[in-house]
Amino acid sequence: MVFCDGAHQGLKNCDTKTHQIFKTVVSKRKILLTGTPSPNDLMDYYNLIYRVNPNVLGTPAQFEEEYKNPIKRGSHKRATAHDTEYMERCCEELKEKVKDVVDFQSQEYVKKDFVLGVALTKPQLIMYEDYLNRENPDTGNKAKRYCLADFHVFNHLITHPWLLIRDHERIGDVKGNFEIQNIC
């Protein structure tokens, strides 16, 4: 079984390296995950379906004739009532055709984000201050600050101080009371 997350990015276009590699993978089941189930280009949609089950929508030429062109015509702002009706029928037919291949998730599940502010623990605060006050061993002066590198260290520190163990050698190059193993 093969899972491909973010399938809309790498598999919708037949020319991408990801697409070329994916089609060489032999598997009884391929599951594509995407947060963008309805791409603007119907051929991208065709390519995603084709990667999972090549027999569902026929050839690219058949798909264009049966679905892409009528849907494009019917969605045009100058479309006739007949074109719009036909487009709606094509959309329903397409949805019915792929129902066993595509799992359309509804918007029933509303995502809720919660942000909690949590104070640093005493050991975290000590490590934070020690890191800011560290010295360069070569000059004895205060160590230079590097915004992104420091952000990375502080992110580890607030997430969980033990994450800093892997950074210990880099941080240990600088004098200070930056003890990691004895914080808990």
UniProtKB/TrEMBL annotation:
GO MF entry, a single one: ATP hydrolysis activity
Domain spans labelled SNF2 N-terminal: 1-142
Any one GO cellular component localisation term in the record: nucleus
A Pfam family reported for this protein in Swiss-Prot or TrEMBL: SNF2-rel_dom
Gene3D superfamilies: Tandem AAA-ATPase domain
Subcellular location: Nucleus
UniProt main location, coarse: nucleus
Keywords, comma-separated and alphabetical: ATP-binding, DNA-binding, Helicase, Hydrolase, Nucleotide-binding, Nucleus
InterPro entries per UniProt: ARIP4-like, P-loop_NTPase, SNF2-like_sf, SNF2_N
Family in the record: Belongs to the SNF2/RAD54 helicase family.
Official protein name in the record: SNF2 N-terminal domain-containing protein
Organism: Panagrolaimus davidi
